[in-house]
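Entry 14. Ran structure prediction on the chain below.
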Amino acid sequence: MTRLLISAAALALAGCGSTRTAEPEIRIQRVEVPVAVECVPDDLRGPPAYPDGDAALRQAPSAAERYRLIAAGRLLRIARLAELEGVVKACR
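Output, structure tokens:
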């Protein structure tokens, strides 16, 4: 009987010793993380000095001169808006 138990124990231990553990699988996984990026270019100029400010309009000698100042300011604002629209479109 003891011989049978010793044989069974030897077989059980022999079976445990022969099992191989699987090698760990090495996988490289790419993770993309969004990064905040400044989309306003460094060469973007500040707003121009508009000629139709309150002080300039008050100092204008005539209505025609005030109209000329307002028209010049409007043209500058249209050009500035076009420039800023291009920057916003590039950011999107």
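Helices lie at 2-18, 54-59, 63-91. Will compare against last week's run tomorrow.
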